[in-house]
C-alpha cells in the first residue's frame, strides 16, 4: 500500500479511535479479501505479546483472540501405502505404484484417469479392488493437527450490527488447554 495523502481532522465531539483505518488500501484482488498481518517477535516474549493482545481485544466477556491451528490431510500416496499395509499387499508392489504418481495432490479421479493410460496402475486397481475402495473415504481426511507456534487470530466485535465472538467467524476446535482453529 502506498500512502498518497494524510489528512488531519479536528472535532468538537469525542471520536472513538480504532487501531488502524486504511479504507480499501489493503484489499487484494477482485473479491477484495484482506491480507494477514505478519509481525515477528522474539521467541522468549511471544507469550507476553499474546497476553497483551488478549487483554486488548477480549473484552465484555467476549473472546475475540485465539491461537491459529494447522492440520494436514491424507494424500493419495500415504493413504494407499497405509491401506495396502492393512490388506497385506506386498510393499514392493505398493512402492512401485506410488512411484508412478507424479503429484502427491492427485485426486480420486486422477487415479482412474492415470489407470486408463497406465497398464500397471490399471492392473493394480483390478487386482486389489478392496484397497482402492477403502482409500476413497480416507483421502482428504485430517491426518494431524497442531497449534501454530505464534499465530493469533483476532475477530471483529460485530458483523452486520450483530455482536459476535470468534466462534461465530471460523471453525473452532476446543482443546483441553486452549481454543484452537
Count of helical stretches: 6
Strand count: 6
Instruction: List low-pLDDT spans.
Output: 176-181
Strand content: 15-25%
If you compute it from the alpha carbons, what radius of gyration comes out, rounded to the nearest whole angstrom?
25 Å
What is the H-and-E element order?
HEHHHHHEEEEE
Q: Would you tell me the structural class of the helices and strands?
A: alpha+beta
Strand order of the largest sheet: 1-2
Distance between the termini: 29 Å
**Biggest sheet, open or closed, and with what strands and sense?**
2 strands, antiparallel
Could you provide a short overview of the structure?
By secondary structure, the chain is of the alpha+beta class. It contains six helices and six strands; from the N terminus they run αβαααααβββββ. The model is unreliable at about 175-180 (pLDDT under 50).
Could you characterize what this model shows?
Helix 2 (76-86) runs antiparallel to helix 3 (91-100) and helix 4 (108-117) packs across helix 5 (119-127). Mean pLDDT is 80; it is low at 176-181. Strands 1-2 form a two-stranded antiparallel sheet. The chain has a two-stranded antiparallel ribbon with strand order 3-4. It has a two-stranded antiparallel sheet with strand order 5-6. The protein has six helices and six strands. It has 181 residues and is an alpha+beta fold. 34% of the residues lie in helices and 17% in strands.
Amino acid at each position: 500500500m502506498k500512502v498518497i495523502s494524510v489528512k488531519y481532522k479536528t472535532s468538537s465531539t469525542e471520536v472513538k479511535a480504532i487501531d488502524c483505518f486504511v479504507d480499501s488500501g489493503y484489499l487484494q484482488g477482485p473479491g477484495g479479501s484482506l491480507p494477514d498481518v505478519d509481525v515477528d517477535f522474539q521467541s522468549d516474549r511471544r507469550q507476553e505479546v499474546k497476553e497483551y493482545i488478549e487483554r486488548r481485544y477480549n473484552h465484555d466477556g467476549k473472546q475475540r483472540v485465539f491461537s491459529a491451528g494447522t492440520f494436514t490431510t491424507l494424500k493419495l500416496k500415504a493413504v494407499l501405502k497405509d491401506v495396502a499395509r492393512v490388506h497385506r499387499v506386498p510393499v514392493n508392489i505398493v512402492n512401485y505404484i506410488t512411484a508412478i504418481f507424479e503429484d502427491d495432490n492427485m485426486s480420486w479421479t486422477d487415479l482412474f484417469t492415470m489407470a486408463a493410460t497406465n497398464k500397471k496402475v490399471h492392473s493394480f486397481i483390478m487386482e486389489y479392488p478392496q484397497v482402492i475402495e477403502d482409500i476413497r473415504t480416507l483421502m482428504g481426511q485430517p491426518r494431524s493437527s497442531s497449534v501454530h507456534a505464534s499465530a493469533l487470530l483476532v475477530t471483529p466485535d460485530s458483523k452486520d450490527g450483530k455482536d459476535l465472538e470468534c466462534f461465530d467467524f471460523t471453525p473452532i476446535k476446543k482443546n483441553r488447554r486452549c481454543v484452537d482453529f
